[in-house]
Every structure is written in C-alpha cells, then in structure tokens.
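Help needed: design a sequence for this.
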C-alpha cells in the first residue's frame, strides 16, 4: 500500500459498526479503507487467547441485538458466523436457594410460583408490557432519527412515520409508552412484582453498562434495549457466537474484504484532516496520510470531535453539546480460565439454567447500594455480576474438560476516589485485586469453589477497556442510553443523522442512533446516509 493513497471512504476504527459501514459501502462499489489502531479487528466484539488453550470474549460476551437484516445482507453465516442460543439463567441467594429463569413459559410460571404465586400471575402482564414496547421501538432501529426542527422532505417523512406509529398505539398506550421511557426499572418492577429476588433478577438488564441505579429515571428503557434483540426470530433471546464475539467481527470483516475492501491494522488515527470546512482524509500516528472525501468515525462522539478534530473547525455550540454528552464508565470485566466446571450446590444436577446468565443479587436495595458505592468512587462491596460459562455450549472456547467463564461487573468507577478528592484514572494492582476479591466473593455465593478452579484470570477496569478498545471511560454503549440522549437527541440535537458540521465527516459508532450493543445498526445507517449524499440508494434492508 503506497503512502498518500486515495480512497472513496476511510473508516476510522474496525469495531463491528465500523466494519458494518465499510462492508455496505464496499458492496455499493466504493473504494474503502478501514484503519484500526490495534493489531486485531473487532473493537469490543473480539475474541482473544490470553492463556494457552482458552479463548476469551474480552469485552462484549453475548449476542442478541445484531440485526437479522444485516446478517442476511452481508451473508455472515457464509463467513462462519453461528449464534447458539442459550436458555434461561438464575439468581442465587445467600441462604442456599435460587430463582431460575426459564425460556419455557410453564416452567417459568412454576418457578415463579415457588417464590410468589402473585408474581407468577403478574409475569404475563409484565411480559406483555415489555413486548409492546419492543414492537414499537424495533422498526426505528434501522431508520433515521428525524430532526423535528427540519422541514426537509425526508425529516418530515420520518416524523410522519413516527406520528403514525404513535397514533396506532392509542391514547392510553401512548401515555404508558412515554411513562415507560422515562421511569426507573425499580419502579416498573415494583408495580408488577412483590418478591425481592424476582425483582433483583429482572432488574439487571436495566443497569448493565449504565451509570445509573435501579431507581434512576430512564433505566426502564435500558432494560428494553436489552430485550429488543432476537435469535432465529425468538424476541429477547440471547446466545453465544461460536468462537466468541470476535466471530461476528471476523465475519463482517471477511465480507468487506471479499468485496474489495482494505483493512490496515496497527494504524491509530492522529487527526482527521480538513480544509475549508470539509474532511480530506486522515493522518495516522505513524505519520502516514490517506486521502478521502468521506471519513466515517467508529470512535465515540467525544473522542472523534474533542480529540481528533481541531477545535477551530467546529461551531462552539456543537463542541459544547459534545462536551455535555454523558459517557460515564461504570463497568468492569473478568475473564476466567477454569480447570473444570465449578460446583453450584444449590442447583439441581445438570440444571439447564446453568448454561445461561447467573447472578447473586438479593434485592433492588442491594443493587442500589452498589450504585451508591460507584457514585462515591468506590468499588462496589457487593457488585452486580452477570456470569456465564459459554464453553458449556461452545467447546471451542476451552480445552476438553476445562471451561471459560466471563463475568460482567456493575459497578466499577472510572475514577477511584482517594479520601475526599478524585485523582483521575488511578487503578493500580491493589485496586484491581480489590475488585477481583469483591467479585469472587459474590460469585462464591453461587459456586463456593470458584477460587480453586481458576487457572488464569484477566481483570479489566474501565480505564483498561478505554485504553484497549477506545471507549471513553470504558462505557460499553459509547454514551448513556437515557431519554435525553436517544433518537433525535443522539448524539447532539440537530446532528442525529450520522453527519457533522464538517462536511464529509460522519459518525458510524454507537454514539449515534440507535445506540450501543453489538447490533450493527449505527454502522449500517451511517453507510446509508453516506450513499444517500451521493444520490445512491443502498441495497439490502433500506432498498
């Protein structure tokens, strides 16, 4: 590859959204270059072997949100993508009991009735309420977020579509929808259930990756964000990508390269080049320069415009709005190599729910106290944990007889407080050991022998996720999923359609609509916006 080569489009960042945008653009005949700072592709959707014989899904770890339209358009199964669904999960208690969540309706009803007959009867109403919200929001994931202040025909058309969908709900259901989007997951669950354990189990999806507590307004939508995906048509189902989450990125990257695209790894962006208010290319950290009239940034909105663009090239009001955009680190991750399956004494032998997501939270108040620790800049004494053992379903992840465990942790602060002051990113080995001990103590409630089974363990605090993946503060959604940062407010009011004040510079990552998760929608939507600017209609879901 020669220096100063010219392309039709350059994509900065080979995360799954950047690769998705690049793949659609390559299929449309564009000459596309993807530059990636790491020596591997995938961003947060990556599989890496950090201990011989074991493969970790380092950051993202389960699949559901990936849009089936994108899987079909890019023919991802052809490139090896296979998602294996798992069924159910469980939350364990400190007194030796558990609540199991089954995908089978009758089994779930019996299990709920074991804890509360009232809650077993109420679950159907709860599930129907959540599914109504899913049916309402899902059509908007692969559509543009209209600018309500614009009179452009496309914006008017999208606003008309929104109004039509809202009108179809009817007055009562529309009111419930607006209320749902702004309420807390704690209040929503309190309205439906009485049992603390059931509520604690269901609340987890409302706080994962979010710098909010279970009683913070807006967390009910975060739960919806985790429920609106599907696997093989099963709404809300979750599964493991065979070979780890990197299999998703590898499949998208393979389709991109099969259609003539180029990926340059070990190539971090130093600066987006501009002239007379428009982008002209990228300058890399190693001094190389590549030219293109269009650049799509897979980095978050803060990193894109506050770090890699000259402040003088942006309107001051736009810069201030980007600075206000909330991207708060609240999550950590443990990846663990196990010599064999740990024991779960409370669970029946060979329980199917052990192949799902496992937790130990006892109540909403316990989860709220974990959030209080995070607000004070402390590692949560009893953090929320989401632990899974994908090697039970996907044996490629570990040697025969051994297992791999992935543990998502909420809450871990980006900045650790020391005394009465906050001292920036100050995670050291002692802080990481404290985090690991707190997490392992929680895990021991469910599997008391977990420490004895560990062969290797990777502990990743928010700052480490930021350094490796490029997610500001390690925020997995590239920005909070609160009502003030969704739809036509994401990332900045007036700039919700992937473009920016610099002509030709686009966002294609999760800071843009419809937000985070391994769904590919921001990348696909950004590609459509880029092609539309050239008068081209993108083939596939938008045709």
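Sure. Designed sequence:
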């Amino acid at each position: 590859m020669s220096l100063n080569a010219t392309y039709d489009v350059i994509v900065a960042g080979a995360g799954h959204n950047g690769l998705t945008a690049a793949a659609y653009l390559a299929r449309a005949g564009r000459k596309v270059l993807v530059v990636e700072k790491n020596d591997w592709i995938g961003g947060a959707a990556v599989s890496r072997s950090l201990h011989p014989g074991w493969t970790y899904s380092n950051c993202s770890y389960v699949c559901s949100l990936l849009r089936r339209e994108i899987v079909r358009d890019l023919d991802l199964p052809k490139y090896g993508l296979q998602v294996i669904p798992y069924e159910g999960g469980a939350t364990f208690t400190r007194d030796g009991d558990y609540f199991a969540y089954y995908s089978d309706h009758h089994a779930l009803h019996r299990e709920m009735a074991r804890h509360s007959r009232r809650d077993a009867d109420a679950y159907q109403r709860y599930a129907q309420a959540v599914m109504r919200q899913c049916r309402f929001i899902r059509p908007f994931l692969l559509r543009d977020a209209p600018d309500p202040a614009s009179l452009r025909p496309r914006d008017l058309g999208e606003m008309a579509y929104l109004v039509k969908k809202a009108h179809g709900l009817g007055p009562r259901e529309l009111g419930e929808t607006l209320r749902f989007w702004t309420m807390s997951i704690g209040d929503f669950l309190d309205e439906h259930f009485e049992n603390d354990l059931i509520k604690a189990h269901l609340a987890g999806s409302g706080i994962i990756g979010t710098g909010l507590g279970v009683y913070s307004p807006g967390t009910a939508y975060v739960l919806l964000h985790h429920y609106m995906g599907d696997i093989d048509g099963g709404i809300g189902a979750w599964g493991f990508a065979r070979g780890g989450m990197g299999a998703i990125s590898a499949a998208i990257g393979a389709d991109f390269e099969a259609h003539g695209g180029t990926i340059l790894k070990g190539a971090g962006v130093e600066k987006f080049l501009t002239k007379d208010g428009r982008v002209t290319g990228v300058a890399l950290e190693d001094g190389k320069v590549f030219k293109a009239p269009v650049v799509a940034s897979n980095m978050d909105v803060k990193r894109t415009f506050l770090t890699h663009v000259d402040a003088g090239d942006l309107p001051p009001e736009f810069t201030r709005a980007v600075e206000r955009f909330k991207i708060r680190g609240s999550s950590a991750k443990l990846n663990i190599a196990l010599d064999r399956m740990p024991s779960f004494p409370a669970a029946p032998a060979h329980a199917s729910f052990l192949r799902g997501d496992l937790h130990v939270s006892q109540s909403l108040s316990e989860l709220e106290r974990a959030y209080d620790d995070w607000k004070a800049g402390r590692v949560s004494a009893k953090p929320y944990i989401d632990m899974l053992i994908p090697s039970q379903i996907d044996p490629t992840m570990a040697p025969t007889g051994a297992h791999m465990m992935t543990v998502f942790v909420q809450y871990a602060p980006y900045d650790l407080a020391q005394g009465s002051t906050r001292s920036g990113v100050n995670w050291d080995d002692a802080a990481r050991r404290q985090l690991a001990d707190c997490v392992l103590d929680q895990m021991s409630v469910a599997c008391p022998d977990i420490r004895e089974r560990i062969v290797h363990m990777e502990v990743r605090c928010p700052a480490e996720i930021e350094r490796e993946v490029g997610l500001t503060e390690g925020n997995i959604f590239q920005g909070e999923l609160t009502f003030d940062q969704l739809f036509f407010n994401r990332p900045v009011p007036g700039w919700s359609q992937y473009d920016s004040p610099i002509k030709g510079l686009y966002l294609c990552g999760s800071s843009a609509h419809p937000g985070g998760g391994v769904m590919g929608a921001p990348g696909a939507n950004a590609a459509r916006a880029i092609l539309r600017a050239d008068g081209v209609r993108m083939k596939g879901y938008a045709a």
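DSSP finds 17 helices and 23 strands in the chain.
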